[in-house]
Amino acid sequence: MNIAIIILNWNGKHLLEKFLPSVIDFSQNHEIYLVDNASKDDSVAFVKHNHVKVKIIELDKNFGYAGAYNKAIKKIDADVFCFLNSDVLVTENWLDPVISLFENDANTAIVQPKILDQKRPNQFEYAGAGGGFIDQLGYPYCRGRIFESLEKDTNQYNDSRPIFWASGACFFVRKKTFNTLNGFDESFFAHMEEIDFCWRAHNAGFGVTYTGNSTVYHVGGASLSKTNSKKTFYNFRNSLFALTKNSNHPLFIVVLMRLILDGVAGASFLFSGKGKHTLAIIKAHIEFYGALPKLIKFRTQQQRVTYVGEKSIVWSYFIKRKKVFLRLRKH
Questions:
Q1: Do 288 and 251 form a contact (C-beta atoms < 8 A)?
Q2: Terminal Cα distance for the chain, rounded
């Protein structure tokens, strides 16, 4: 099985210096691509000089995560695409369990490995952890991470099993599946496009799988840190985009509930002195309502299956105080 490992870069020379060697060392016999989002640093020159076997696709402007990968895929051919963040350290034999899943299960279309924190290697990393799920209001959570509560890795998720979404930090997908779903939704630009993609995959009948037999280590926040209000904007807006497009629950009810809960989040930011994040949530809702006609049109044109996650991860976490995935109801 041929895997194309595709690393997205934007002014990330320092990350490529640190993490690209592990990808090269542990990905023998597979092509490695660097997709550059019009970087202003000399990261492309660094790779050309130091890693001549890495193929480079240079874009003329920053197209974000979704747009950059969509454009790059048109120039790449492989059985499976691996979308890998530039701040990920891979481990020896990381590809073998993934290849095995694809070869042994024709319904497996998307795969995520275990994602641990590169700075705290015994702890799950925020973006993906042990595989992603979503509640009925569109709030994502993971095995190993619910909101800001991160679990230690005690091998509790060393299994292989179906999940709802795979993390964009390290995301494997069959070429056929990617093309069938027309790639990522470029209106997302950055953040949560992988959740939208996996949701559309479920609606189309494809399987998403996690394997704890493959491990990578992710830094996280390399492009936008959690303190950046732009990240808050993209997360809230894109969550509403994905929910409206893909959920099979009554749209008016879920959007009304989200308006209330997002308002509570905005008030919390305001009272804690983070007014920029409150404004980011307001802006996210304004853009969402402006995009509603287009989102509803997409919603009515696709099959939507009923997914039963937590009714409200907000209720489970903040009211019932269930901060560990294994304390939630069975998935």
A1: no
A2: 31
Report d(CA 132, CA 123) in Å as an integer: 16
On whether the CB atoms of residues 154 and 198 are closer than 8 A, the answer is no
What sign does the CA torsion over 195, 92, 48, 54 have? negative
In the numeric block, which tokens belong to residue 245?
A: 């497009």
Residue 84's nearest CA partner among 158, 161, 159, 194 is 194
Q: CA-to-CA distance for 195 and 181, rounded, in angstroms?
A: 13
Q: List, as one string, the DSSP characters of 275-291.
A: HHHHHHHHHHHHHHHHH
Q: How far is CA 205 from CA 194, 198, 241, in A?
A: 16, 10, 21
Which of 167, 240, 179 is closest to 206 using CA atoms? 179
pLDDT over 80 at 186, yes or no: yes
Structure tokens that stand for 150 in this block = 């991160």
pTM here?
A: 0.96
Q: Count CB-CB contacts under 10 A for residue 321.
A: 8
Question: Is the CB of residue 131 less than 8 Å from the CB of residue 210?
Answer: yes
In degrees, rounded to 5, the angle at the alpha carbon of residue 242 between the alpha carbons of residues 205 and 331 is: 55
pLDDT for res 306: 83
What residues have CB less than 8 Å from 307, skipping those under 6 apart? 134, 164, 199, 202, 247, 248
